[in-house]
Design a protein that fits this description.
- By secondary structure, this protein is mostly beta strands.
- The chain is built from five helices and 48 strands.
- Among the domains are: 113 residues, no CATH class; 120 residues, no CATH class.
- Helix content is 9%, strand content 55%.
- The strands form nine sheets. The chain has a ten-stranded antiparallel β-sheet with strand order 2-1-12-3-4-41-42-45-46-47.
- The radius of gyration is 21 Å and the shape is globular.
- The two termini are 24 Å apart.
């Protein structure tokens, strides 16, 4: 018997709308794009031969969609980073307007801006079968549709959650719940404003990170920090109507006790799924759930690195002097938590414990489209298959197996087409090392580890200290890689 969820999990990224550089319709329907954003759909955009996953979507005056594209480090060429290390953020609209700003990595130094007119192709993928929220409530937490029980059940089953709250759509990157409420953080949002002409959304001058913690009580906690500094720009609370959408395309593949002993499923099935391109979500007690930013496997065990969380005062308040709250979670049962102050190179603490853990895998279809050796010679598929996947808006994951029973899996944050070749940036990685035969842990004096991989086998690594503009080494090498696509 087929279920609605089967159709959702096998659905494709759909080209919903395309605008030219003047903001005129080329194909599709702007109304449909707006409706998809309101229904919690994920959004990907293709412009200037580069595809990005939208971090945050805005509906502007009910007439346009604008998205923040924050997962990009400035390039000197299609396959290499700028050596001085800059974030390159874009705010792109269906009007054809693009605002691009650059800041030094780890500092508040503004490196310039551009305002352009660009053609954009917009892709969406549904978050839910019915396009209806599993829970909708008003600013006081009063239920408008759906149920809190259904939302909690979805979270227990590993579902990815996205929200729509007045004119904004965003992923919930870290979830937690009690018997009476659900709360979740979004940490990828930079301050914006309407430009002097009153039409276009632009990044604010002297920009700040705008972190939010939403709850099913209707509360919205907002913590703002200057980009590249540990300088608070205000911490306020408000209330908002919120629609919560659940993606059911996840299944429990392995659960174990705090010693790593299986309670259900198997580690072998988890490793096999990772080697087949699957994304992974990790759940620890109190149903704290998040997607792994990257995955390491060695000797039959898996370690997930989780980076998209801030320290909290409680389930409705971000901590006043907040820190990044990073975790390394292993199938041995070990959970290592490390805190660094937001915006500066200050290690706060590292603690470890052993906990029961549940591992969920993405049941959407991931297809191996290309595999090559370190010399860029094709072993399976072709570079053209990757080019066509990027042009179709597909999400792409990479798998690097560097030794017997050892490997690393990750998602690309952006992908650029250059003729018959593709380069992809992987940016969601903080420095780590092997700590035991079966575990990984964060290194001391942590740094960001940014990589550009190409379909020719080239790999460039650029490392920058967490919280300061200090280069920690830059090198180029060659590796074999497998490329998986979710169309």
């Amino acid at each position: 018997m087929l279920f609605l969820s089967d159709f959702l999990c096998n659905s494709s990224w759909i080209a919903v709308y395309e605008n030219d550089a003047r903001g005129q319709q080329v194909s599709g329907s702007l109304k449909n794009l707006i409706n998809e954003v309101r229904a919690g759909a994920s959004v990907r955009v293709l412009l200037d031969n580069t595809v990005y996953q939208a971090d945050f979507a805005h509906i502007v005056q009910g007439k346009a969609v604008a998205v923040q594209l924050l997962q990009s480090v400035a390039r000197a060429a299609w396959n290499t980073f700028k050596r001085n290390g800059e974030w390159e953020w874009k705010l792109v609209s269906t009007s054809g307007f693009e605002h691009q700003v650059r800041y030094d990595i780890g500092a508040s130094t503004f490196r310039g801006e551009q305002r352009n007119k660009v053609a954009v192709k917009w892709f969406t993928k549904q978050q839910s079968c019915s396009k209806k929220p599993v829970l909708s409530h008003d600013r006081n937490g009063a239920i408008l549709s759906g149920s809190l029980v259904d939302l909690m059940t979805s979270i227990k089953e590993g579902s990815d959650i996205r929200c729509f709250s007045p004119n904004s759509a965003f992923p919930i990157q870290s979830l937690e719940m009690t018997k009476s409420l659900v709360s979740g953080q979004n940490v990828h949002h930079v301050s914006v404003t309407i430009d002097s002409g009153g039409k276009e959304l632009v990044f604010q001058n002297n920009a700040y990170w705008w972190f939010t913690l939403h709850s099913t009580l209707g509360t919205r906690d907002m913590s703002r920090w200057t980009v590249g500094e540990h300088t608070s720009r205000g911490h306020t609370q408000s209330r908002a109507n919120i629609d919560w959408f659940a993606d059911p395309c996840w299944k429990l593949v392995f659960a174990h006790d705090k010693h790593g002993a299986a309670k259900s499923g198997s580690r072998a099935d988890l490793v096999t799924a990772i080697k087949s391109g699957a994304r992974v979500r990790v759940q620890i007690p109190s149903y704290r759930t998040a997607e792994a930013d990257n995955l390491s496997f060695q000797n039959g065990h898996v370690t997930a690195q989780l980076l998209k969380r801030l320290s909290e005062k409680n389930l409705t308040r971000i901590a006043g002097d907040t820190s990044w709250y990073w975790q390394m979670i292993s199938t041995t049962g070990k959970v290592m938590s490390t805190l660094y102050k937001v915006g500066e190179h200050q290690h706060v603490s590292t603690t470890s414990s052993y906990q029961e853990i549940r591992w969920f895998i993405d049941t959407k279809s991931w297809t191996l489209i290309y595999s090559h050796n370190a010399q860029g010679q094709a072993l399976d598929g072709s570079e053209g298959d990757v080019v066509r996947a990027v042009q179709s808006g597909a999400a792409i994951r990479g798998l690097y197996e560097y030794a017997a029973n050892k490997g690393y899996a990750f998602s690309f944050q952006n992908l650029r087409i250059h003729g018959d070749h593709v380069s992809g940036q992987h940016l969601n990685h903080v420095s780590m090392r092997e700590s035991q035969a079966s575990e990984m842990q964060l290194t001391q004096n942590a740094y960001w580890w940014f990589v550009i991989f190409t379909t020719q086998g080239r790999m460039e690594m650029s490392r920058w200290s967490v919280g300061e503009h200090t280069s920690r080494r830059h090198n180029v090498g060659s590796i074999g890689l497998k490329w998986f696509a979710n169309y």
